[in-house]
Specification:
single chain, alpha/beta, 10 helices, globular
Length: 297
Amino acid sequence: MILVLGEILFDIFPDGKRLGGAPFNFAFHLKSLGFDVRFVSRVGQDHLGKEILSFLAINKFDTRDIQIDPDHPTGTVNVNLNPDGSHKFCIAANTAYDHMVYNDRLKRMSERNWRFFYTGTLIQRNQNNVQLVEKVLANKASSAQCFCDINLRPGCYTTKAIRSSLRQADALKINEEELDEIMGGKNGDETYERVRYLMEKYSLNLVILTQGAGGSQWFLPDTHLINQVLDNKSVIEDTVGAGDAYAAMAVAGLMKGLSSKNIMDFAEEFAGFICRIKGALPDDMSIYQEFKRRLKQ
């Protein structure tokens, strides 16, 4: 019911590597919450690619959805942490996921009756993948919703890719810095007007604005909700993957038909949990059982 297209890679920290990539983090969370998820990506024919395929198989992803590239390496990102828990990325260029192919398997999947199709901007940092995403969306069922997570990493996006992503999206997740980059100016009292402008220009049904420790805002056609973080006193290990966790829980709540306010609470709580661990994915899977129980209520 959820088709995810995008990068899977290794985040390289000073003390080791962890599996990541915003689309994969998103897919992993939703699959761990019990949703029907298909994840499509491309890895190199190298030891990192083999490690990824093994991890996916263990976690019951269909590894046939992962394309193997004989000429380009598996994606990596060097992550440097700042004292405040924020991070800087150095993303390897010209890796396997930059060369995804719109093959028969992906075409058949794109034609299925998906509830949500997820993509982001990093996977569209070159023209090959911009066109690939457009082909997938051209074949999707009219009832499928496109959820776009804007992730603007230095040197890894173009104005064309951003505009293409906005045109494709039904629902958009964006943070304050990304809003400033897209719209210009500084974040302040005009945030509401700028988001409403985006919604009108690109026919968006939902914009989720994440604000870190400041909480989040949801913009719907006739509603504007502001939510504060439930617990902002916890020790932050790092913020890698917090936005992906928020996005996954938001879609989980939408799939379950929860109220926007409840979804915001769940999403902020889950993102906060991810901030208290190293990397984007938890080793303790019990957190998913707790949220699965609460999503059913």
